[in-house]
Amino acid sequence: MPEGDTVWQTARRLHDALAGKVLTRSDFRVPKYATVDLAGRSVLDTVSRGKHLLTRFEGGLTLHSHLLMEGAWKVYGGGERWKGGPAHQIRAVLATADRTAVGYRLQVLELMRTTEEERTVGHLGPDLLGPDWDPDLALANLLAAPSRPLGEALLDQRNLAGIGNVYKSELCFLLGVTPWLPVGALPAEHAPKLPALAKKLLEANRDRVVRRTTGVRGQDLFVYGRAPRPCLRCGTSVRVADQGDGSQERPTYWCPRCQAGPAPAPGSPQKWRDRYRRTSN
């Protein structure tokens, strides 16, 4: 699933391509909106809210989309071939005189009144890349469930919006704790640093093509996707295991030497260990 910085980049591309222009064509390839035609309306702006995208139109309408795991918005010039995927994966087309935005594999696509946006995104915590960012509130949200594993709490968009699996793993490494450490067990000197560190990472990467957290030449990430390669700091093999509440488990990376705290239950890393053995050959 794209992280907050990737969604922010997508919003900027859509905004730069469409904002201030009149739609010459709209095509929603989902049954609910199959007869909707926005042609003739001006596009006001596109903004991101955590991992959500909001494109606003003249007349008080907003198109809400979410990329989830495989969705994407691509922008094409006039006459340019659409290369984001086969035609049957297209869910939305927004065209102006010189640009066309095409939404592929969008599992969430909702047209609403702009006044109703909060119904969709009002549950989100402070946005790490948004004007509502509030580090004190973000920290208070995280600490409100002290027994919850830190990795799960960071992924909960109700606490703070924009962190995905990559930043979850990288943040825990930079804080020197495992993602299974209860939030309430965070060292007193680390907890206040967490919101600022998360914001720093996302802000540093929102304008980059390749996400980077290390500052080490030739190495973009400390632990995410690196199992079973050696840790960049200590040389210990990076490990990977599932983490989640049972409804949705995601691969989580950590260094057992550099990061203090609980490890996953024995046997849980097997699924991902086997996968990365295959892909590393």
From TrEMBL:
Keywords: DNA damage, DNA repair, DNA-binding, Glycosidase, Hydrolase, Lyase, Metal-binding, Multifunctional enzyme, Zinc, Zinc-finger. The keyword Electron transport does not apply. Its EC number is 4.2.99.18. Pfam families: Fapy_DNA_glyco, H2TH. InterPro entries: DNA_glyclase_Znf_dom_DNA_BS, FPG_cat, FPG_N, H2TH_FPG, Nei2_N, Ribosomal_uS13-like_H2TH, Znf_DNA_glyclase/AP_lyase. Residues 222-260 form the FPG-type domain. It catalyses: 2'-deoxyribonucleotide-(2'-deoxyribose 5'-phosphate)-2'-deoxyribonucleotide-DNA = a 3'-end 2'-deoxyribonucleotide-(2,3-dehydro-2,3-deoxyribose 5'-phosphate)-DNA + a 5'-end 5'-phospho-2'-deoxyribonucleoside-DNA + H(+). It is an enzyme of class 4 (lyase). Residues 259-281 are annotated as: Disordered. Gene3D superfamilies: 1.10.8.50, MutM-like, N-terminal. Belongs to the FPG family. This is DNA-(apurinic or apyrimidinic site) lyase.
